[in-house]
What we know:
This protein has 3 helices and 4 strands. By secondary structure, it is α+β, with helices and mostly antiparallel strands. The chain has a single domain (2-77), classed as YaeB-like fold (2-Layer Sandwich), CATH 3.30.2310. Strand 2 and strand 3 (41-47) form a beta hairpin. The protein has helices at residues 2-11, 23-26, 64-77; strands at 20-21, 33-38, 41-47, 52-59. The longest helix is centred in the last third of the chain and has 14 residues, at 64-77.
Amino acid sequence: MxxxxxxVADTLESLPDRGRAVPELELFxxxxxxxxxxxxxxxxxxxxxxxxxxxxxxxxxxDRHDVLAERLLRAATGxx
Length: 80
């Protein structure tokens, strides 16, 4: 699993625009984060002219809204 994700993530170095905007974040006007799909995972990242940062890897089989809500709640309440 790690190798599959790593192989796809490594391609972002030369093709950072290959991913799409994250649909759940696009609803809120957030388009700087992109994602590539490598079944069953979603690799969420952001890039600028020199750097690609992988923000998260999600299991694509999970409900997207539940994952987003969980992350937002965790960010809002701070570390446990």
